[in-house]
Each structure stands twice: as C-alpha cells, then as structure tokens.
Design brief:
Length: about 150
C-alpha cells in the first residue's frame, strides 16, 4: 500500500485541481476565446465547415467535462468516505483504479464518436490537424502559465 500512496496522492491532487480550477478560473472564457481563435487559424475551416464544426465541438467538450466531473467526483467521494487516501484499502484502491480506467475508456469512446461526426464533413487530414492543434494549444497555454504571463498579452 505504501508503494501506491504517493502516486495516488499526486493523481487525485491533479484531478481535484483540474476539476475545480475549471469552474472557478476567471480566465476560463479568455482561454476559450483563445482556443477558438487558435483552432480556427490552424484548421483553416471554410464557412460551411465552421458552421458544422463548432456546435459539434462545443457539445463534445461539454460531454467530456461532464464525464470527467462525474467520474472524478465519484472517485473522490469514495476516498473521502473511506476516511482519506491513507485509509483506502488495497482492494478499494484496485476498484478505484478500475473506475479510473473505465472513465478513460468512456472518454476514448466519446472521442471516437466525435471523430466519426467530424468525418461526415471534414477529411481525416483536417481531423488530424485539429487533434494536433488542440494538443499544441494545451502545451502553449501551459507554457504561458509556467512563465507567469497574463492571458491578455
């Protein structure tokens, strides 16, 4: 159990930070605006593609957020009910890891549905560009925060 303690503490701390920082972050709308601008530029969507893409993308993001929040909330709740991470039994830790793996599976399935929807009007090349651009945006955003820069710059 001691071998699992440190990684589990880090894991659930990161999850907790991600969930609660999204709802309380005053820069959330600014990040969303920057992401839309970045993706629009990188994808070079025409007017018809953009009309179809953004509603599907917004729904996809909302669904992912819901899946993550509910899954991570349930995991956190079980840890709290056990009396804290130090009091989680090995058997319960195994169940929590299984729940986390199921959560990741649900996210993957949602991503697959999203790609299938996109492929109705975008080529796989543009879908791949989107995936890379979305990942790059996240890296650039993280780098900007690490440098302590304001989002408005």
């Amino acid at each position: 159990m001691k071998n699992l303690k440190a990684p589990l503490i880090v894991f659930f701390s990161i999850i907790n930070f991600c969930i609660f920082s999204q709802d309380r972050n005053p820069n959330r709308e600014k990040i969303k605006e920057l992401k839309i601008a970045y993706l629009t530029e990188k994808l070079d969507l025409n007017v018809n593609e953009a009309k179809l893409f953004w509603p599907i993308y917004n729904n996809y993001n909302a669904t992912l957020l819901k899946i993550r929040k509910e899954g991570n909330f349930n995991i956190r709740k079980k840890i709290i009910e056990a009396g804290g991470l130090d009091d989680v039994t090995n058997e319960d830790a195994e169940k929590l890891i299984e729940e986390k793996l199921q959560l990741e599976k649900n996210i993957t399935e949602e991503r697959q549905r999203f790609i299938k929807h996109l492929n109705n009007f975008l080529t796989f090349n543009k879908i791949l560009k989107f995936q890379i651009a979305e990942k790059d945006f996240g890296k650039k955003l993280l780098a900007k925060f690490k440098k302590g820069k304001n989002l408005n710059k």
